[in-house]
Design goal:
The protein is of the alpha/beta class. It has 2 domains: 313 residues, TIM Barrel; 76 residues, no CATH class. The protein contains 18 helices and 12 strands. It has an 8-stranded parallel beta sheet with strand order 4-11-10-9-8-7-6-5. Helix 1 packs across helix 18, helix 5 packs parallel to helix 18 and helix 17 packs across helix 18. The chain is globular, with a radius of gyration of 22 Å.
């Protein structure tokens, strides 16, 4: 399938002409207005989960500050009338160096959740990284995407059988890469969620990849650690109703009597992450998939070197959107040294703090192959579903294309470190 013909000028014209006719989008272009409008439409729990970070949330601030430390130096009279912002990545040509990061529990913000994002990504021909904590099974989203590019994010659980099953399913439904998230083997100290005492997984949300998995269904029947009985309250009974409703299948009473919805939540909380992982475990993954393996969560150049030495196919520089380690470095700060160590042996992607076309430009100038976004498209999903996700993507692509041209670059190859200066 040919790439869609995208024009930044056409995107601008469309916005202005609709405005002239009195039609304004429900999805603000300005980041601050986008976040604030989405906040008003979300539940307090959903906004805390999406917007919040670890501790004092200084890492979220560091992600943004890192972009402010670099300034673009535009060049003139370069003939940028014809521009090409496309790249090739793992066998797919995509219209811009932009991917949708995995974000879990999207049912908190929109009933169509991952399905809406998948359809939007397919229409824009941008890769969507399926979340391990999705609200819809990967097969369902893949079917809605046709032949459009998608990857699968893997949280390495305590069950290697489950890991192997998830990876096999990803291959079968047409994913072209496995993204192993390394920085969430333990759940970070997320103060907004803790103040609300709310974790969506305890309501059976965000575990669709598990409940749709045959190995997980088998594990549910194995004895586990269980949990101490607690006094029944109105809130706990309400929570039980939510768990049963979230579990796949029809017939509330039938599901309740089966006990499987509660078993699913208990088993998930027992095995969802594995803090005992080491570099040696990557060999297990390589034995179970022929797909490219990416490591997401790399910030230290020594870890980047280790990744390459272990045969990893791509690195995603990420700090989980500031949700894991408070006081961590910004991802753009980490990028140059990692690019230097990798020395073009594998692609390097950047995730964290990308909100505008200028951010994309700066990341590519410092050596990134592409960038990933999370919160922006979730806010678009909140406000307008599939159409909202598409608008956010189109706005970013248009902003990037114009930034590239106005800086004197007509294609990705011309975006080089010389286009930036470091501002102290």
């Amino acid at each position: 399938m040919e790439l869609p013909k995208f024009s930044a000028a056409d995107r601008q014209k469309d916005i202005y002409l609709k405005g002239f006719a009195g039609i304004r989008s429900q999805v603000p272009v300005d980041w601050h207005r986008l976040e604030e409008k989405a906040r008003k439409q979300m539940s307090p729990e959903a906004f805390a989960y999406i917007a919040g970070g670890a501790g004092l949330e200084s890492t979220i601030a560091s992600n943004r500050a890192a972009f402010d430390h670099y300034k673009i130096v535009p060049r003139m009279l370069r003939n940028v009338s014809e521009r090409d912002s496309s790249i090739e990545l793992f066998g797919h040509k995509i219209p811009a160096p932009l991917l949708f990061s995995p974000v879990g529990v999207l049912e908190m913000v929109h009933p169509e959740a991952d399905l809406a994002v998948g359809r939007a990504a397919a229409k824009e021909r941008l890769p969507f990284i399926f979340s391990n904590q999705a609200s819809k099974p990967m097969e369902e989203v893949a079917a809605a995407m046709g032949d459009s590019p998608r990857w699968f994010q893997l949280y390495w659980s305590k069950s290697n059988d489950l890991v192997a099953s998830l990876v096999t399913r990803a291959e079968r439904c047409g994913c072209s890469a496995i993204v192993v998230t390394l920085d969430t083997t333990l759940l970070g100290w997320r103060t907004r969620d803790l103040d609300l005492a709310y974790l969506p997984f305890l309501e059976g949300k965000g575990i669709a990849q598990y409940t749709s998995d045959p190995v997980f269904q088998r594990l549910m029947d194995e004895p586990g650690n269980g949990s101490s009985p607690r006094k029944a309250t109105f809130e706990s009974l309400t929570g039980l109703i939510k768990i049963v409703k979230a579990y796949p299948g029809n017939g509330f009473i039938k599901k309740l009597r089966s006990g499987r919805p509660v078993k699913a939540v208990r088993k998930f909380t027992e095995i969802y992450s594995n803090p005992a992982l080491t570099w040696k475990d990557l060999a297990f993954l390589r034995q179970h998939t022929k797909l490219p393996i990416l490591l997401k969560g790399i910030l230290h150049p020594e870890d980047a070197a280790l990744a390459v030495s272990h045969g990893v196919d791509d690195i995603i520089v990420s700090n989980h959107g500031g949700r894991q380690v408070d006081g961590s470095m910004g991802t753009l700060e980490a990028l140059p040294e990692i690019v230097k160590v990798v020395r073009a042996q594998v692609p390097v992607l950047l995730d964290g703090g990308v909100l505008a076309g200028a951010d994309m430009f700066k990341a590519l100038a410092l050596g990134a192959t592409a960038v990933c976004i999370g919160r922006p498209y979730v806010y678009g999903l909140t406000l307008a579903g599939e159409a909202g996700v598409r608008e956010v993507a189109q706005n970013l692509m248009a902003d990037f294309d114009l930034t590239m041209g106005l800086s004197g670059c007509k294609n990705i190859v011309e975006i080089k470190p010389e286009a930036l200066i470091r501002s102290y």
